[in-house]
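In this notation, each integer encodes one residue's backbone shape. One such record reads:

___
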Amino acid sequence: MRTEVSRAESEKFHEECGVFGIYAPGSDVTQLTYYALYALQHRGQESAGIAVSDGKVIRCEKGVGLVAEVFQETEKLEQLQGKAAVGHVRYARSNEELLINAQPLLVRYRNGHLAIVHNGNLINRYRLRSQLERKGSIFQAGTDSEVLAHLIAHSGEDEIIRAIKKSLLYLRGAYTYIVMTPEKMVGIRDPYGIRPLSLGKMANGYVLSSETCAFDTVGAEFVRDIEPGELIIIDKNGLQSERFAPPKRQALCVFEYIYFARPDSNIHGRNVHLVRKRLGRRLAQEHPVEADMVTGVPDSSLSAASGVAEQLGLPYEMGFVKNRYIGRTFIQPSPEIRALGVQLKLNAVRQIVEGKRVVMVDDSIVRGTTSMRIVKMLRHAGAKEVHVLVTSPPVVAPCYYGINTPARDELIAARMGVEEIRRAIDADYLGFLSEEGMLECLNLSKDGFCTACFNGRYPIALDDFALDKERRG
């Protein structure tokens, strides 16, 4: 039976996946990776997988669904024993083949075998695939992990680190990779640092993760963020750092702070929850609306909503209840049922919002359809007024670096001004956080982030992407 990604979910930005790696001989690396993937589940809910090395052989188990669904049979975990492991959770577009693209990717080539996990997007992937196919490569899936695997195989280098470094020179785009051989683990972050990757330490080894919340789960101590253009090697000799490319202008995806990361994660030494509270405070300073209460759209907007409430001196209330037992995918047999997507996930609490002037805080407005339905939900529950405050600027451009976003003509802010959007979603007031205010709250150089979705200024030129698009027709 076929499942489709909920239309309500497709109207939010989505990080495509989360990666985790552990090299810790003597530890139960399989179980620890399993727990870490639970911590990273918010970054991808369509497939999950774990590959484990015992020093000689790499074994892999993966499947479609949540971590608990893929590994509900304990025998799958018990069969994976070793000293190192990599894990992956993935968000996928609705028309993709989920299982064939599930990671880790396990490959064998003339110098041995590898397990690869990846987060991000190569803007020149189709051109690279075409070049590799002309050399005889046969691709089974559509992931960027497979592109790297073929580049390594064609590198002409026998030593794996030289092969990886040579292969990385061909890549353009945003990426973090973890590559595991039977004896080594290699962490890689793109020269712009668009996708996050952090290093942690355990008593008998090291861990790599998309987010630091996974370190807390497995009992690892945060060491530092992997630098843009850096390659980390972990093996029996310990930890070694090399550069495969000089760092470019650092351009961490700003939505890591606004939406993607878990509130208990730290990025660049800053706690995500506290950053979101600052965003909320600044939002309220820029838009000091008069109201009776503040509520946030669960879950990513709750921290910001508390900041808005504190700044406005209003009570922060639980205006919505989220159904946490509905995943990102479910059966949608008809348009009428599909339209209920938001209501299946959220319910407005009438006793809290009825007769009130409500400030509804959200992290972004993409297509606008979800915001319209949530505003309607509050009005149906008896809200007297609905003031929508958004903790990011208007989204006017799509992302090409690994975030699943609609095309430009589907972005409501690319077609309408703020007042037009307000009328479209039927809000009494609509206010977006200014780009200047957002960057001040992040307290880092404005050149330290990718903000292309707000201004169309992409840190990596899209010439390769345009060529790829032209080739695909």
In short: Confidence is low (pLDDT under 50) at residues 1-10, 328-334. The first strand starts at residue 4 and ends at 5. The longest helix spans residues 272-286. The chain has two domains: 4-253, 270-455.
